[in-house]
Amino acid sequence: ETGVTQSPTHLIKTRGQQVTLRCSSQSGHNTVSWYQQALGQGPQFIFQYYREEENGRGNFPPRFSGLQFPNYSSELNVNALELDDSALYLCASSSGTGGIYEQYFGPGTRLTVT
Amino acid sequence: RKEVEQDPGPFNVPEGATVAFNCTYSNSASQSFFWYRQDCRKEPKLLMSVYSSGNEDGRFTAQLNRASQYISLLIRDSKLSDSATYLCVVISVTGGFKTIFGAGTRLFVKA
Questions:
Q1: β-bridge partners, A32
Q2: Mean pLDDT, consecutive 10-residue segments, chain B of 111 residues?
Q3: How far apart are the C-alpha atoms of A35 and A93, rounded to whole Å?
Q4: Contacts of A101 in chain B (CB under 8 A)
Q5: CA B5 to mean position of chain CA atoms
Q6: Would you call A77 an interface residue with chain B, using a CB distance cutoff of 8 Å?
Q7: What 3-state class would DSSP assign to B81?
Protein backbone atom coordinates (compact mmCIF):
# COMPACT_ATOMS: atom_id res chain seq x y z
CA GLU A 1 0.00 0.00 0.00
CA THR A 2 1.43 3.38 -1.04
CA GLY A 3 1.25 6.16 1.54
CA VAL A 4 0.57 9.85 1.01
CA THR A 5 3.32 11.65 -0.89
CA GLN A 6 3.91 15.37 -1.37
CA SER A 7 6.14 17.45 -3.59
CA PRO A 8 8.31 19.40 -3.39
CA THR A 9 9.83 18.83 0.04
CA HIS A 10 11.05 22.39 0.42
CA LEU A 11 10.37 25.57 -1.51
CA ILE A 12 11.54 29.18 -1.31
CA LYS A 13 9.44 31.89 -2.94
CA THR A 14 9.36 35.66 -2.99
CA ARG A 15 6.45 37.75 -1.71
CA GLY A 16 3.86 38.27 -4.44
CA GLN A 17 4.72 35.09 -6.34
CA GLN A 18 2.45 32.10 -6.87
CA VAL A 19 3.11 28.52 -5.77
CA THR A 20 1.66 25.08 -6.53
CA LEU A 21 2.05 22.18 -4.13
CA ARG A 22 1.19 18.60 -5.01
CA CYS A 23 -0.16 15.60 -3.16
CA SER A 24 -0.79 11.97 -4.08
CA SER A 25 -3.31 10.26 -1.85
CA GLN A 26 -2.93 6.86 -0.26
CA SER A 27 -4.17 4.05 -2.50
CA GLY A 28 -7.89 3.44 -2.03
CA HIS A 29 -8.52 6.96 -0.69
CA ASN A 30 -10.76 9.39 -2.58
CA THR A 31 -10.63 12.39 -0.23
CA VAL A 32 -7.79 14.87 0.25
CA SER A 33 -7.50 17.66 2.82
CA TRP A 34 -4.89 20.41 2.99
CA TYR A 35 -3.53 22.04 6.12
CA GLN A 36 -1.16 24.87 6.99
CA GLN A 37 1.00 24.43 10.09
CA ALA A 38 2.99 27.34 11.48
CA LEU A 39 5.81 26.66 13.91
CA GLY A 40 4.55 25.74 17.37
CA GLN A 41 0.91 25.52 16.33
CA GLY A 42 -1.52 22.80 15.34
CA PRO A 43 -2.40 22.31 11.67
CA GLN A 44 -5.04 24.73 10.32
CA PHE A 45 -7.62 23.28 7.91
CA ILE A 46 -7.54 24.94 4.49
CA PHE A 47 -10.02 22.80 2.51
CA GLN A 48 -11.04 19.30 1.56
CA TYR A 49 -11.71 17.72 -1.83
CA TYR A 50 -13.96 14.72 -2.32
CA ARG A 51 -14.41 13.25 -5.78
CA GLU A 52 -12.95 16.37 -7.42
CA GLU A 53 -15.28 18.81 -5.61
CA GLU A 54 -14.48 21.12 -2.71
CA ASN A 55 -16.27 19.57 0.25
CA GLY A 56 -15.40 22.00 3.04
CA ARG A 57 -13.24 25.05 3.65
CA GLY A 58 -11.54 26.67 6.62
CA ASN A 59 -10.89 30.37 7.22
CA PHE A 60 -8.46 30.98 4.39
CA PRO A 61 -8.76 33.71 1.73
CA PRO A 62 -9.65 32.92 -1.90
CA ARG A 63 -6.02 33.20 -2.96
CA PHE A 64 -5.74 29.69 -1.51
CA SER A 65 -7.30 27.39 -4.11
CA GLY A 66 -7.15 23.75 -4.98
CA LEU A 67 -7.87 21.00 -7.44
CA GLN A 68 -8.45 17.29 -7.24
CA PHE A 69 -7.85 15.06 -10.25
CA PRO A 70 -9.65 11.88 -11.38
CA ASN A 71 -6.87 9.78 -9.84
CA TYR A 72 -7.60 11.62 -6.52
CA SER A 73 -4.25 13.41 -6.44
CA SER A 74 -4.51 17.08 -5.55
CA GLU A 75 -2.89 20.48 -5.88
CA LEU A 76 -2.85 23.46 -3.55
CA ASN A 77 -2.31 26.82 -5.25
CA VAL A 78 -1.47 29.98 -3.37
CA ASN A 79 -1.44 33.31 -5.22
CA ALA A 80 0.10 36.63 -4.17
CA LEU A 81 2.28 35.04 -1.51
CA GLU A 82 2.70 36.87 1.78
CA LEU A 83 5.43 36.48 4.39
CA ASP A 84 2.89 34.91 6.78
CA ASP A 85 2.31 32.09 4.28
CA SER A 86 5.66 30.63 5.37
CA ALA A 87 4.69 27.33 6.99
CA LEU A 88 4.58 23.57 6.63
CA TYR A 89 1.80 22.55 4.23
CA LEU A 90 0.36 19.14 4.93
CA CYS A 91 -1.86 16.99 2.80
CA ALA A 92 -3.97 14.20 4.29
CA SER A 93 -6.04 11.53 2.59
CA SER A 94 -8.97 9.49 3.81
CA SER A 95 -11.52 7.10 2.38
CA GLY A 96 -14.28 9.68 2.85
CA THR A 97 -17.10 7.19 2.86
CA GLY A 98 -19.37 5.75 5.54
CA GLY A 99 -18.43 8.45 7.99
CA ILE A 100 -14.83 7.28 8.10
CA TYR A 101 -12.77 10.38 8.69
CA GLU A 102 -9.44 8.96 9.75
CA GLN A 103 -6.87 10.99 7.89
CA TYR A 104 -3.35 9.97 6.98
CA PHE A 105 -0.77 12.67 6.41
CA GLY A 106 2.02 13.12 3.93
CA PRO A 107 5.44 14.41 5.02
CA GLY A 108 4.58 17.99 4.08
CA THR A 109 6.07 20.77 1.99
CA ARG A 110 7.98 23.44 3.87
CA LEU A 111 7.37 26.81 2.18
CA THR A 112 9.50 29.84 2.94
CA VAL A 113 8.38 33.22 1.61
CA THR A 114 11.03 35.95 1.59
CA ARG B 1 -12.73 31.16 22.76
CA LYS B 2 -10.85 28.68 20.57
CA GLU B 3 -12.92 25.96 18.92
CA VAL B 4 -10.62 23.26 20.30
CA GLU B 5 -8.50 23.84 23.40
CA GLN B 6 -5.82 21.62 24.85
CA ASP B 7 -3.69 21.74 27.99
CA PRO B 8 -0.84 24.11 27.08
CA GLY B 9 1.96 21.91 28.46
CA PRO B 10 4.70 20.96 28.24
CA PHE B 11 4.43 17.88 30.43
CA ASN B 12 7.68 16.53 31.86
CA VAL B 13 7.28 13.03 33.34
CA PRO B 14 9.59 10.17 34.34
CA GLU B 15 9.52 6.83 32.57
CA GLY B 16 6.74 4.65 33.92
CA ALA B 17 4.47 7.55 34.84
CA THR B 18 0.83 7.88 33.85
CA VAL B 19 -0.01 11.07 32.00
CA ALA B 20 -3.38 12.49 30.96
CA PHE B 21 -4.16 14.93 28.16
CA ASN B 22 -7.39 16.90 28.05
CA CYS B 23 -9.17 18.66 25.25
CA THR B 24 -12.42 20.64 25.05
CA TYR B 25 -14.38 21.62 21.96
CA SER B 26 -17.03 24.26 21.41
CA ASN B 27 -19.17 22.89 18.55
CA SER B 28 -21.79 20.54 19.97
CA ALA B 29 -22.54 19.26 16.45
CA SER B 30 -19.03 17.82 16.11
CA GLN B 31 -19.10 14.29 14.85
CA SER B 32 -15.72 12.56 14.99
CA PHE B 33 -12.78 12.82 17.35
CA PHE B 34 -9.18 11.68 17.19
CA TRP B 35 -5.81 11.88 18.87
CA TYR B 36 -2.70 12.31 16.72
CA ARG B 37 0.94 12.41 17.74
CA GLN B 38 3.51 14.55 16.01
CA ASP B 39 7.26 14.17 16.35
CA CYS B 40 9.51 17.18 15.83
CA ARG B 41 9.51 18.31 12.17
CA LYS B 42 7.41 15.30 11.11
CA GLU B 43 3.83 14.90 9.98
CA PRO B 44 1.02 14.07 12.44
CA LYS B 45 0.33 10.36 12.79
CA LEU B 46 -3.04 8.93 13.80
CA LEU B 47 -2.89 7.53 17.31
CA MET B 48 -6.51 6.71 18.13
CA SER B 49 -10.09 7.39 17.23
CA VAL B 50 -12.20 8.45 20.23
CA TYR B 51 -15.63 7.04 21.01
CA SER B 52 -18.22 7.71 23.70
CA SER B 53 -17.81 4.16 24.93
CA GLY B 54 -14.09 4.74 25.35
CA ASN B 55 -11.40 2.80 23.59
CA GLU B 56 -8.12 1.31 24.61
CA ASP B 57 -5.05 0.33 22.63
CA GLY B 58 -2.34 -1.14 24.81
CA ARG B 59 -1.08 1.59 27.14
CA PHE B 60 -3.34 4.23 25.57
CA THR B 61 -6.94 4.95 26.55
CA ALA B 62 -9.15 7.58 24.93
CA GLN B 63 -12.49 8.82 26.16
CA LEU B 64 -15.19 11.14 24.82
CA ASN B 65 -17.76 12.98 26.95
CA ARG B 66 -20.28 14.57 24.58
CA ALA B 67 -22.29 16.21 27.35
CA SER B 68 -19.24 18.10 28.60
CA GLN B 69 -17.71 18.43 25.10
CA TYR B 70 -14.47 16.97 26.37
CA ILE B 71 -12.04 14.31 25.17
CA SER B 72 -9.12 12.78 26.96
CA LEU B 73 -6.08 10.60 26.34
CA LEU B 74 -4.39 8.57 29.07
CA ILE B 75 -0.94 7.07 28.60
CA ARG B 76 0.11 4.48 31.16
CA ASP B 77 3.67 3.30 31.84
CA SER B 78 5.23 6.11 29.78
CA LYS B 79 8.20 5.23 27.56
CA LEU B 80 10.96 7.50 26.29
CA SER B 81 9.53 6.92 22.80
CA ASP B 82 6.23 8.53 23.85
CA SER B 83 7.95 11.93 23.84
CA ALA B 84 6.10 13.93 21.18
CA THR B 85 3.36 16.50 20.73
CA TYR B 86 -0.17 15.16 21.16
CA LEU B 87 -2.89 16.79 19.08
CA CYS B 88 -6.61 16.41 19.58
CA VAL B 89 -8.76 16.64 16.45
CA VAL B 90 -12.46 17.39 16.11
CA ILE B 91 -14.40 16.95 12.87
CA SER B 92 -17.77 18.44 11.97
CA VAL B 93 -19.67 17.85 8.73
CA THR B 94 -22.71 20.09 9.21
CA GLY B 95 -22.50 22.91 6.68
CA GLY B 96 -19.42 21.41 5.03
CA PHE B 97 -16.57 19.25 6.22
CA LYS B 98 -14.28 20.92 8.73
CA THR B 99 -11.36 19.62 10.78
CA ILE B 100 -10.11 21.50 13.81
CA PHE B 101 -6.81 20.63 15.45
CA GLY B 102 -5.90 21.70 18.94
CA ALA B 103 -2.59 23.51 19.38
CA GLY B 104 -1.05 20.35 20.82
CA THR B 105 0.51 19.40 24.14
CA ARG B 106 4.20 18.60 24.23
CA LEU B 107 5.24 15.55 26.29
CA PHE B 108 8.79 14.90 27.47
CA VAL B 109 9.42 11.51 29.07
CA LYS B 110 12.71 11.34 30.95
CA ALA B 111 14.79 8.35 32.02
A1: A49, A93
A2: 90 97 93 94 94 91 95 97 97 88 97 95
A3: 11
A4: 31-32, 34, 91, 99
A5: 10
A6: no
A7: helix
